[in-house]
Structures are given as C-alpha cells and as structure tokens.
Amino acid sequence: MDMRILMISPKVRGIGGIAQHVSTLVERLRDRGHDVRVISAENLPILRKKGLRNPSFAVFASLRSFLRKFDVVHAHNVPSAIPMRLARGKRVLTIHGVYSENVEMIHGRLVARIGRYLERKAIEWADVLTVVSESAAQHYRSLGFKPVHIPNAIDLKDIPESGKRLYDRQVVYVGRLSKEKGVDVLIRAFRGVEGDLLIIGKGPQERELREMAKGVENVHFIGFKPRQEALRYIKGSDLLVNPSRSEGLSTAILEGMACKVPVIATSVGGNVELIRDGVTGILVPPNDPEELRKAVEMLLNDQELARRLVSRAYEVVLRKYSWEVVIEKYMEVYAVMGTG
Q1: What angle do CA 20, 313, 76 make, to 5 degrees?
Q2: What is the mean pLDDT of residues 231-244?
Q3: Sheet-wide strand order for 219-223
Q4: Which of 248, 245, 247, 186 lies closest to 221 in space, CA to CA?
Q5: Residue 233 CB: number of other CB atoms within 10 A?
Q6: Do 201 and 173 contact (CB within 8 A), yes or no?
Q7: How many CB atoms lie within 10 A of CB 316?
Q8: Backbone φ/ψ region at 53: left (φ over 0), alpha (ψ -120 to 50), beta
C-alpha cells in the first residue's frame, strides 16, 4: 500500500552522513511509489549563523509541518522532533549517533544538560525510535527506551569506476571539520609521514585546523566537494582515515569499504561495529596521534594486508550495509506502525 510520508531533516544535500542517508531513503521510498514530501534546511529560510541554525530550522520547519496529515512523519535527529510532533501521523524519530554526547563534546556540559532534556522529550514524542548503530541502541536502552537498530547504508551504484589521485601515496579524510571528528589529531599524526593527506570538507574548525597545518607540507585542504567528486578522491586514495572522537555509523567509512579502499578508524561508537580490527580495517584509540601514525605507515607499506582488508570489508558491505538490505528494515517499521 502506497503511503504519504513526511521526511524532516536538517540536511538532505552534501557529503555529510545524515544528508546522504536521508536523501537516499527518500529516493528509495519514491521508487517504490510512496508520496514523500521533504522539509529541510535547503527549502527553509533558516538563520545561517553559528548557534542559530538548528533553532531556526526547528521554528520554520514547525510552521511548515503544523497540522499537516501524513501516514508517517519521519524525523532525523532532535532538531526535527518539534516539527515532527506538530504534524499529524505516525511518528518515527531516527537519531544518528548519541545526540547528547555530541552536544557535550561540541558545546560543553551545561548545554549538554539542555540537550539531554530535549533528547528525552523528542524520543517520548515518537511512536518509534530508530538508531544507526548498536552502541547507540544500547545507550538508549539503558535510559529505558526501546530503539530499533537500522544502520546507515551505501548505494553501490554511486561508487565511481575510476578514482582521482593527486599524490603517489595518498590518504584521504572526508567529512565535517569540527571537534568531534578529530581532524586535529589526524594533522598531528601526519607530521613526518611519507605520504600526503587530503582533507575534504568544511566546518566550524576549519580556520583553526588550517592554522595548525601550517608548515606541514604533506597536509592539503581540498575544501568542500560534491559527493560524487569526493567519492572519486576516496576511490583514488591508498587509505581512508576516520579519526573521530565520537561517531554514529560513519557513511564515509562505508564509502571507503565500498570503494575497496582500506580504512583506519578510531575505536568509538559505530566504528567498532563496521570494522573488525585487522580483518576488515584497522582500529586505533581516539586522541592518539602516535598510534594513528603507526597505523597509517603500516598500511601504506603493507600492500598485501591492505588487499586482504578491502576484500573482506567489501563482503561485509554487501551483506549488511547495502540499501537493498536497509530499506527493507525501514519498510518493516512503517508496516508495524500501520497507517492513518
């Protein structure tokens, strides 16, 4: 039965993991004949100043969703919860990561207290809570909720046939330039590495990171790139590195695995679900530039190990993280909720 679905998300465009997840979910639902309407920052007049983006998104999205009737109202992350509540229909809330932990890392403990309150209210308003990692599911279960684990996914038809290489030994980071992503640790790790690091993305820490990288000649800021171009940089690299201090289920890691590029990541959040250390990738402790440096140098110099990692990682993507698998999990959630 075809459904009318309202999808609410701060972002549905760009290289960010949430944007990719939501945009592909919308596309897959429409391919199945469902009527999907989208409310996002891209179609609202939000205030684009630091600290005002999410609050203004919540306000303007609420005005757009107020009393509109759908079979399913599907919101992504806590800022989307108020417009979700004001619409009419069965409510699904997807939290990408652990919201309050990310708020504390970026804004400190005082703001995190407010974040925890808003997070709890948002979950209470939803009929179903879904999360993208098992570690997040365990966290929310400990708070008394009953989350459904539906992971991020990768659309294999998006993977380019050829890559883009600028340097002989090329390592790439793709993502937001903000504290929780740990790019500062990656820059410190690259001092003295025989290889070049491409940093693709933008964010609030960009100026600070560029200042930190002055004099480190093998670190190169490429800036924001459209997703297909970013994928070509991944495809053309020897390694993809995710140095996060906090992570949900990284779409960038999935993209590296799908591009058959070996991945090094920190042992936080959903990274430990995506990567089996020494089997499908390499895990290192967070906030440890020395261990990160050792892992980068090891994989750059051990091509046989790199080949084994990418072969097994690709098998995992096909089995667990393709959209053919994940879309069915969302359809099961929608079906159990019923319509009306």
Answers
A1: 25
A2: 98
A3: 219-223, 196-200, 170-174, 239-242, 263-266, 282-284
A4: 186
A5: 23
A6: yes
A7: 17
A8: alpha
